[in-house]
């Protein structure tokens, strides 16, 4: 008799390299524009406040549309929604490159936020193909794809914008998204769960409401919100903190972010799978929260010391990589199979909400900290926020999230291959 879940394992191994490439290219295009976004907006007359609104507009659109697009992927297929997202990304970067006024720049970021669902739908795609015992490993590797892109893209965008101006890297991002769309069209098959119409007949909003009524999922969403809120506090305050405490400029900050990116890839691709062999998902999450809290507080209290910065920086990257991967895995494992896209979309919506409100709070805390002589105040606040999920996660301690379960004896690998041979697709309705 074939081992339970072996079909899913084979399907995941077959489809994952393609999905990894799709996510890598998507984040590469997304992150190319980050280094010069502020300077581009400033050249069009943006004030710091207007720039804050510009950044928040992207996150706000994510907050609104992520769950909707995720649920649509439950009903109409992962592949189709990934391609729609990539098409929207390409169009948004094209408008970005052509922008000669602030309203066009806002339009481009709003367009990008509305269709920025590639990652959450890719997570749901993996949930369709993986047994429960393999899900954390694959979701961690998918996170490594985004981390790898974030290592390369800022340097690429910063270099191109300094040589050729702001339009050329924007058009490159548009071209990458368009190439990614064609790559997904020809190489990415529909997963068998979506092919079999398992998304159910519930309407989009009724299904999302059903997800939000589930008590365990709400605890996980709140935990994820806290984790993202804390890390955005860190992201926003880190560069000015480096300048104030250590006298670092853009070059040194860029090197540190490169180091952080390398640490993220190593944590997700190498360390996380090994830790998962000896710890349950819940214990891993608690370990990550402890690492996060200790690292944030250490940043808040430490003097300008490079060795300590590198040590606690790596511990923070490891803690965040662990918690973000395990929380998304726990969300998936606590969600019915026909609601995976909607549930993971809601998780990213909570992330978008945190990214919308955190920059203003972090900037205010940093200014207050400077006036009080405590420049690390945003990091201390992040440490406090990181404690919030601990009692929530303790409620999951008695459950086993390590074995494989809730998977059928169907053969998804064979279905996946047959899907590529079929010409008839379920109509979009």
From TrEMBL:
What Gene3D superfamilies is this protein classified in? MFS general substrate transporter like domains
Top-level taxon: Archaea
Tell me a Gene Ontology molecular-function term this record carries: transmembrane transporter activity
- Membrane disposition: Multi-pass membrane protein
Bilayer-crossing regions: 12-37, 49-69, 81-99, 105-126, 138-157, 163-186, 219-241, 253-272, 284-302, 308-331, 352-370, 376-396
Q: Write down the InterPro entries for this protein, in alphabetical order.
A: MFS, MFS_dom, MFS_trans_sf, Sugar_transporter_CS, Tet-R_TetA/multi-R_MdtG-like
Any idea where the Major facilitator superfamily (MFS) profile domain is?
A: 15-401
Q: Which UniProt keywords apply?
A: Membrane, Transmembrane, Transmembrane helix, Transport
* PROSITE patterns given in the database record: MFS, SUGAR_TRANSPORT_1
Q: Which locations, inside or outside the cell, does it occupy?
A: Membrane
One cellular component term (GO) for this entry is:
membrane
Q: What is this protein called?
A: Major facilitator superfamily (MFS) profile domain-containing protein
């Amino acid at each position: 008799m074939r081992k339970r879940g072996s079909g899913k394992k084979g399907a995941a191994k077959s489809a994952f390299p393609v999905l990894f490439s799709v996510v890598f290219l998507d984040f590469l295009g997304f992150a190319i524009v980050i280094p010069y976004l502020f300077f581009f907006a400033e050249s069009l007359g943006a004030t710091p406040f207007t720039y804050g609104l510009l950044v928040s507009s992207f996150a706000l659109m994510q907050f609104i549309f992520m769950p909707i697009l995720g649920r649509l992927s439950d009903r109409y297929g992962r592949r189709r929604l990934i391609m729609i997202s990539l098409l929207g990304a390409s169009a948004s970067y094209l408008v970005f490159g052509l922008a000669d006024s602030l309203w066009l720049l806002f339009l481009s970021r709003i367009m990008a936020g509305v269709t920025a669902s590639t990652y959450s739908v890719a997570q749901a795609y993996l949930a369709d193909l993986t047994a429960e015992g393999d899900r954390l490993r694959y979701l961690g590797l998918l996170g490594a794809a985004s981390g790898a892109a974030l290592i390369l893209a800022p340097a690429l965008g910063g270099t191109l914008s300094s040589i050729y101006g702001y339009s050329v890297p924007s058009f490159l991002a548009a071209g990458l998204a368009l190439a990614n769309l064609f790559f997904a069209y020809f190489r990415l098959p529909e997963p068998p769960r979506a092919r079999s119409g398992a998304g159910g007949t519930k309407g989009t909003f009724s299904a999302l409401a059903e997800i939000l009524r589930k008590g365990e999922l709400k605890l996980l969403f709140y935990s994820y919100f806290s984790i993202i809120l804390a890390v955005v506090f860190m992201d926003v305050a880190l560069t000015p903190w480096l300048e104030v405490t250590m006298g670092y400029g853009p070059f040194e900050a860029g090197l540190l972010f490169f180091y952080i990116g390398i640490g993220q890839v190593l944590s997700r691709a190498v360390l996380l799978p090994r830790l998962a062999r000896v710890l349950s998902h819940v214990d891993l999450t608690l370990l990550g929260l402890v690492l996060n809290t200790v690292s944030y507080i250490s940043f808040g209290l430490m003097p300008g010391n490079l060795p300590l910065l590198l040590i606690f920086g790596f511990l923070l990257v490891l803690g965040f990589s662990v918690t973000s991967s395990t929380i998304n895995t726990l969300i998936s494992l606590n969600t019915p199979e026909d609601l995976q896209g909607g549930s993971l979309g809601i998780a990213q919506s909570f992330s978008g909400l945190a990214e919308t409100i955190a920059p203003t709070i972090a900037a205010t805390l940093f200014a207050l900290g400077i006036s009080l002589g405590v420049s690390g105040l945003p990091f201390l606040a992040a440490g406090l926020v990181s404690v919030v999920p601990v009692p929530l996660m303790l409620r999951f301690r008695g459950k086993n999230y390590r074995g494989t379960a809730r998977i059928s004896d169907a053969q998804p690998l064979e279905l996946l291959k047959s899907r590529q041979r079929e010409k008839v697709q379920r109509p979009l309705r």
